[in-house]
Amino acid sequence: MSQLLQHHVADYCQQCLVIEPGIKVEKAVTLYDESTECLVVAVGRQPVGILLRERLFSMLSTRYGPFLYQQKPVERVMLRQMLLVDDSTTLEQLLLMIEETESDFGETILVMNDKGIHGILTLETLFNLLTQIQHEEADHQMTVIRENVREVTQVSRAVQKMSTSMIHYEQTGHVMKEVAHGGQQTLEDLLKHIRLIEKVVQRQLDQVEILQQQMQQISPLVAGIKRIATQTNLLSLNASIEAARAGVHGAGFQVVALEVRQLSEQVDAAVKQIESYMESTLMESNLTRQQVTKGRQEVEAATTLVKGIDTQFSRLFQLSHTMGEEMGTVTEIIREAGLKMSWLENSMKRMEDQVRTNQQRLFRIEKIKNDQTNLADTEETRCAG
Which residues does the UniProt record annotate as the domain Methyl-accepting transducer (predicted)? Predict the structure, then answer.
């Protein structure tokens, strides 16, 4: 609408009849026809007044009108207050001039140029033009509203698409939560098995320590066996020497034999004790082997659990990757929706400004109409009086 108001008044004015101030009222009356509402009274190129048909006929229709104005020049009845504008004046500037004018100029604007009177522009024509402009502006606003509706529809679709993606994302999040929970449970089971392995290893260490202690106990026994064997050899040697020396007088052989027998018994006892310790050691070794075997089984079970964790986390990473791609799509959709919403917001603000300006101009036009109507009614009342 602002562009239309920048048009010049010369584009909308109409031609008018120009008469001299000395023409009689009766002659002036005959110059009016259906298309002529106003006569311009001018001296040369300079207008000095206007003669409006409606006002002139109203004055002549009074009781004393024909007697008062008969054979009188039109300068006696013309309206001397005029609104003169240059042909380069815009419609917007004209509205400002009308608003600032407090006198009655007969609802007719004289458009002037460098040659004199270019034409006239009535307020009725001006208001009809402004009404047309209002209709065009309303059509434009309807077009803008339709465009906004289309944009809102697109935004609604984008939001719906975003909502669908977000629902899918939520479902994926639930799956990830379940997978993560399964991984956590698997980790707990793994920790339990690891604790069992630690206990088995500790048990093995304890059994190894026992074996070491038993081996330490075996060492003195072996030394004693060696000592007894040495003494037995010495006694046997001595017995042989005595036997050779005594001949038939070997009474002492009985003592030697007894000593050898005692040593033999001690050796036997030591051997039995060694066998007992060896048997105990063998049992502990077997137990250790069993525990190690059990530990190996526990390690294998832990390995299986670790593989299960690896599978779970592989799935988790795959889901995370998929979710990342979907989130990228959601982010793009949100960005597009944000751009459209920003455009829509700016468009709605522009439309709001246009509607506000349009309302202000409507009130402005109505005010101008009312002011001119009141001025015209006041002038007619004064003339009638």
Answer: 136-352
